[in-house]
Amino acid sequence: MYSASEKETFNSGENLFVFHSSAYFLVCFLVVLYYLQARDRTLELLVDKARVICKTADATRLESELEWDKGIFSVEQLLDWKKEGRDDKIWSAIPVVIAWNSAMRIAHEDGYHFKTPKFNPRNPKNEPTHLEARSIQKIKTEHLEEYYEIDESTNRLHFFLPIYLSQTCLVCHGDPKTSKELWGNDYGLDITGHKMEGWNKGEIHGAFEVIQSLDEFDEELYQDIKVILIKTSFVIVLMSIHWIFDWTIHKTIY
Prior knowledge:
Elements: H1 4-69, H2 75-83, H3 87-91, H4 95-105, E1 113-115, H5 130-142, E2 147-151, E3 156-164, H6 170-173, H7 179-183, E4 204-213, H8 215-253
Antiparallel strand pairs: 1-4, 2-3, 3-4
């Protein structure tokens, strides 16, 4: 049998254990909640940033297409540049290339990677990865205006904005039968020497893509949580010392 003093000591130890357990459980719950909310806020900010970048690139593309409509760029002009051997000028008149170059100028300094993956690309660098191909196909089949996904293997956010083919695009990507009328050859080739694909206005074959790493944000979040846990543990220890001190005085007096 335990004496009254021993029972009181045992009960006090049990109460202290319950206090510690409850406090740490509550702290862990709040930290997890904080992490999830902070992670969601971070993703929302990154998605907003990626959306602005892609829409700016698309606006640049559409603006350059207006230059075709106004006659600033034309098939005849591109043919003249071809005769002069000025392929650089030809590429500078292609709307999607203009948009890509515009986005790439600030990509590195702003900490993101910009791509234009597409099916059957002329540039091998634009060959889509498995994730990119699946994402573009998802956009097409589900008629999405945008799509993003986190690649857990690389901890990167991939944001996609579909590129819809316009009438201007068909000058190079349209019916191969028009190559004679447009570019003066019977081989179905466009001004760049590539085979015209026979695509149609409004189709989706690629997208603007912004890739952003989550490593830096996760590290900042980890440091925040680390500070919270250290401060909280310190407070709990102080409260425990205060509780033990009060209990000791109470036992001494009574």
